[in-house]
């Protein structure tokens, strides 16, 4: 075991590339179908993403995860889940590090290792304890498991602080790019965290949060809590970024929908929108042969996902050279904005996905 962790440490030392995101963990107590949700709206300079299924080996679990398109060996997972129903994601943090460690940005490799080996939230905590230090990370790691547990681990090179979903008074935890346990007033994403909480608050009260709400509303909202103004349907010709949830660097929105206690982990579902989220099409991905649609996988030139390339092309029409957003390309009175045209397509994608889940449930219960 010591040799294994020593090898992992050497591999981790080769990784580079941090990112920033908006994320949430939602208890099944406040979701429409009683299943927990793990959401990551990803922001990074690496715009090309793909989703791949990684087969099990004699010593590792099968898993599905989001990777950068140029990660040909699928070494760094940025959100994913495995055959035990364990799921993990991260957001970069900028108010924890207080050392001179230079070999950083190892979050993706750590999450890959977690997907290969962890079955529960407790397993992930044990992994953080056992890995050699410094970890080379500064991140909020969000995790859920098939028992309905969830937590954020605000993690530095040497230690972590755990925030248990069971202790969240409203059943929701939100994190962006600062650690609540870190240096006060520092970090990034305070406005985006407030944006997400504002948009979730009425749905928490009604206990009807869904994966579709996260990808279709939060990942496409141009509400600014700092200005207390919603530009989403303003049809503004040009609008400067006000630290909305969808940012110029946004490159995917992914929700992992877990299972209720006692359900098979095989019913866990990964809802994926690749590319700039306001311009992306949703697909469902599962474990098993053929579980990840070809258009999400790196089946295009240079290992690109065809759906990701399409969304990136649409994004090119939305952002001007000076970085301003042409909101009329997303929402307009003619109903021809990308968000409007994709709304029905994505609603249908969710409907079809839940039909597949229903069939899977019948098969697992021996009724089909």
Structure report:
There is one protein chain. The protein is an alpha+beta fold and 368 residues long. The chain has a single domain (2-364), classed as Penicillin V Acylase, Chain A. The protein is built from seven helices and 15 strands. A seven-stranded antiparallel sheet has the order 3-4-5-6-7-8-9, covered by helices on one side. Strands 10-1-2-13-14-15 form a six-stranded antiparallel sheet. Strand 7 and strand 8 (150-155) form a beta hairpin. The longest helix has 27 residues, at 338-364. It is globular, with a radius of gyration of 19 Å. It starts with a helix and ends with a helix. The model is unreliable at 1-18 (pLDDT under 50).
Structure, briefly:
This protein has 368 residues and is of the alpha+beta class.
List keywords for this structure.
single chain; about 375 residues; alpha+beta; Penicillin V Acylase, Chain A; seven-stranded antiparallel sheet; six-stranded antiparallel sheet; 7 helices; 15 strands; globular
């Amino acid at each position: 075991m010591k040799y294994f962790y020593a090898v992992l440490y050497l591999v981790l030392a080769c990784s580079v590339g941090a990112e920033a995101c908006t994320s949430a963990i939602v208890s099944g107590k406040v979701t429409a179908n009683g299943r927990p949700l793990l959401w990551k709206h990803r922001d990074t300079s690496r715009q090309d993403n793909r989703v791949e299924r990684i087969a099990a080996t004699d010593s590792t679990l099968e898993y599905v995860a989001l990777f950068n398109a140029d990660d040909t060996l699928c070494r760094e997972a940025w959100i994913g889940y495995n055959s035990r129903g364990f799921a993990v994601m991260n957001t970069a943090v900028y108010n924890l590090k207080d050392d001179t460690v230079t070999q950083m940005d190892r979050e993706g490799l750590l999450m890959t290792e977690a997907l290969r080996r962890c079955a529960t939230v407790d397993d992930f905590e044990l992994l953080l304890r056992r890995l050699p230090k410094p970890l080379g990370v500064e991140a909020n790691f969000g995790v859920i498991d098939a028992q309905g547990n969830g937590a954020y681990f605000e993690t530095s090179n040497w230690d972590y602080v755990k925030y248990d979903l069971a202790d969240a008074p409203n059943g929701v935890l939100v994190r962006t790019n600062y650690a609540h346990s870190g240096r006060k007033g520092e970090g990034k994403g305070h406005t985006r965290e407030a944006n997400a909480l504002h948009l979730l608050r009425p749905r928490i009260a009604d206990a009807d949060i869904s994966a579709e709400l996260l990808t279709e509303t939060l990942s496409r909202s141009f509400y600014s809590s700092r200005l207390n103004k919603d530009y989403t349907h303003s049809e503004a010709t040009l609008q400067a970024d006000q630290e909305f949830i969808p940012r110029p660097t946004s490159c995917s929105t992914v929700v992992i929908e877990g299972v209720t206690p006692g359900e098979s982990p095989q019913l866990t579902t990964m809802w994926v929108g690749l590319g700039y989220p306001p311009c992306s099409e949703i697909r469902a991905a599962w474990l098993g042969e053929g579980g990840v649609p070809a258009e999400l996988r790196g089946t295009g030139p240079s290992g690109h996902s065809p759906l990701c390339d399409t969304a990136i092309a649409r994004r090119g029409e939305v952002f001007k050279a000076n970085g301003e957003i042409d909101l009329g390309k997303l929402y307009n009175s003619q109903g021809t904005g990308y968000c409007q045209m994709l709304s029905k397509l994505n609603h249908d994608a969710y409907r079809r996905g839940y039909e597949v889940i229903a069939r899977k449930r019948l098969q697992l219960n021996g009724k089909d």
